[in-house]
Specification:
The protein has 366 residues and is of the alpha+beta class. The chain is built from twelve helices and 15 strands. The strands form four sheets. It has a five-stranded antiparallel β-sheet with strand order 5-6-10-8-9. A four-stranded mixed β-sheet has the order 1-2-4-3. Strands 13-15-12-14 form a four-stranded antiparallel β-sheet. Bound molecules: flavin-adenine dinucleotide.
Length: 366
């Protein structure tokens, strides 16, 4: 694909127009801001915009879009700039419309299990606010500590929990957006059943900022799960680790995530961090016993609101495990969980650690 060099479209007269529409403090042409918005996390690409505008309201965003529409100036919406597909890069120059000042959590509605947020809210911030009132926003991109909810919608982001909970699109009930001509549209709403007409909410999700600027989002929340159980399970080879996945699914266990970590990766992580991770030298289960979880570390993690115990604090052997053992016949009883690293104390202390275990290992979270 040919990428055209940016044209000079944002003249001083246009800058003045933008400033009069949204205020001086929302329009930036300084080198530092231009440079920051010239790239995202996509490797080695740099496209400086001519101006960066940071509206504080939907009306301001609409005013910017109207001016750009009238003068045919390219506009690229931008969230936190953590994207890996180059969507936030202003390849045609023009204006970057950054939503970083649209960053309010407008409502956490615990009666209806919904949240109303602006697009510049950091994903983890919403998750923490929801958890504080016993609710749960499951989509978990690994960048959740820095990316924005608006960017998550535009990229339909998800993480390991997608296996059980789905991705961003599964939690969006409605949104407000500004179209290229500056008109403001509202799709969906604060309701669960909304079956009539075109599903324009979902059309905008994953559209990478090409169809509209999202300025308000209504999200579905879940009750915060009361228990979490993490199992670290060593396997002798990739094949037996892979074979365990359908076995778990067929056992009717709806797990939150399954993560595979090879011992080489665990070792490299240890070397990088300069500290040892739990069970990194554990021998794998013998090849003739591939599906038996001979070495298994169940860790119960209660969510803080239900018990006052946080991940990383003392996690006693799970009292849920016997039922899990019934559902996964080869899961060992928790009370017999063996420790490679010695004491019970050292086992329980691993609850908040990254998963790390033996040769060709996998960790299963439920
Ligand atoms: C270390 C790291 C880990 C990551 N892990 C994951 C992961 O596990 N899963 C995953 O899915 N992604 C992951 N990503 C990619 C990235 O974080 C996500 O795509 C994230 O959703 C982007 O959000 P953002 O706010 O940074 O958006 P940006 O990068 O700023 O923008 C991304 C796209 O969204 C558009 N956009 C942003 N805001 C709006 C808006 N309000 N209205 C319309 N369009 C908008 C932009 O134009 C652009 O096309 C990771 C990135 C990094 C650097």
């Amino acid at each position: 694909m040919k990428i055209h060099p940016p044209a000079i479209t944002v003249t001083p007269a246009i800058i003045a127009l933008l400033k009069s529409a949204v205020g001086e403090s929302c329009v930036h042409t300084d080198e530092e801001t231009i440079e920051r918005c010239a790239s995202d996390e996509t490797e080695d690409l740099r496209f400086p915009p001519e101006a960066v505008v940071m509206p504080e309201t939907t009306a301001m965003a609409a005013a910017v879009m109207r001016i750009a529409y009238e003068y045919r100036i390219p506009v690229t919406p931008r969230g936190a700039g953590t994207g890996l597909s180059g969507g936030a890069l202003p390849v045609h120059g023009g204006i970057v419309l950054s939503v970083e000042k649209l960053n309010r959590i407008l409502e956490i509605d615990s009666r209806n299990l919904m949240a109303v947020v602006e697009p510049g809210v950091i994903t983890q911030e919403l998750q923490e606010k929801a958890e504080a009132v016993g609710l749960f926003y499951p989509p978990d991109p690994a960048s959740r500590g820095s990316c924005f909810i608006g960017g998550n919608l535009a990229e339909c982001s998800g993480g390991p929990r997608a296996v059980k909970y789905g991705v961003t699109k599964d939690y969006v009930l409605g949104l407000q957006a500004v179209l290229s001509d500056g008109s403001v549209v509202n799709h969906g709403g604060k309701l669960l059943k909304n079956a009539t007409g075109f599903n324009l909410t979902q059309l905008l999700i994953g559209s990478e900022g090409t169809l509209a600027v999202i300025t308000k989002i209504i999200l579905r929340l879940l009750p915060l799960p009361r228990h979490r159980l993490t199992l670290l399970i060593p396997f002798p080879d990739l094949e037996s680790a892979a074979a365990a996945i359908p076995a778990i699914m067929n056992a009717g266990v709806i797990r939150s995530a399954l993560e595979l970590i090879e011992q080489a990766a665990v070792k490299a992580t240890e070397a990088h961090l300069g500290r040892s991770l739990p069970y990194s030298d554990a021998p794998a289960a013998p090849p003739w016993l591939p599906a038996r979880l001979t070495y298994c570390l169940p860790i119960r993690r209660r969510n803080s609101r239900s018990s006052g115990t946080c991940a990383g604090q003392s996690a006693k052997p799970s009292n849920r495990s016997p039922s899990i053992k019934k559902r996964i016949p080869w899961c060992p009883a928790t009370t017999s969980s063996r420790s490679y690293a010695g004491s019970r104390k050292s086992q329980t202390g691993t609850a908040s650690q990254p998963y790390a275990t033996a040769t060709r290992a996998t960790a299963i979270c439920m």
